[in-house]
Design a protein that fits this description.
Strands 3-2-1-4-5 form a 5-stranded mixed sheet, with helices on one face. The termini are far apart. By secondary structure, it is of the alpha/beta class. The chain has helices at 6-10, 19-39, 84-92, 110-123; strands spanning 61-66, 72-74, 77-79, 99-104, 128-130. The protein has 4 helices and 5 strands. The protein has a domain at 61-130: Nucleotidyltransferase, domain 5. The longest helix is centred in the N-terminal third of the chain and has 21 residues, at 19-39.
Length: 135
């Protein structure tokens, strides 16, 4: 019993097997047929119009100072401790809400500045900043 003759092993396959290539091309064709309509699908939406003019309403700036002795100042006028919460609440109710710039003396106890910040937060002020000297 011979497993093969010399003539069988000398034959070389001269043609390319096209079946795997056709299978790949059909799969790609199906993928493109499915995905192209999905990619081009758009929903028509009537978007609102907006003006591109900037708003010229500038919020007021409140200068809130704390001197070395711990006294409060509202726009450079002295302010009693009992009036701080009322003034901050009135400022928070304004539209647009003003910016609060806190100026604390470097010799003042931090507790006084922290109380002012806490009162501003309780009043509902959103924009609070600190003023410092450069250098």
């Amino acid at each position: 019993m011979a497993f093969g003759t010399q003539d069988d092993t000398d034959e070389v396959m001269n043609e390319i097997n096209m079946t795997p290539l056709v299978d790949v091309m059909l799969v790609l064709l199906i993928i493109f047929i499915i995905t192209v309509p999905v990619m081009q699908h758009a929903v028509n939406i009537d978007l609102p119009r907006a003006t591109n003019q900037p708003e010229n309403i500038k919020p007021e700036t409140i200068r809130f100072g704390v001197d070395a002795a711990g006294a409060y100042y509202w726009n450079d006028t002295p302010l009693a401790d009992a009036d701080v919460a009322d003034r901050l609440a009135a400022a928070a109710a304004q539209t647009p809400q003003p910016e609060l710039h806190i100026r604390g003396d470097k010799a003042v106890r931090y507790e006084r500045v922290a109380r002012a910040m806490a009162a501003a937060q309780r009043a509902g002020l959103k924009k609070i900043g600190f003023v410092t000297d450069p250098g």
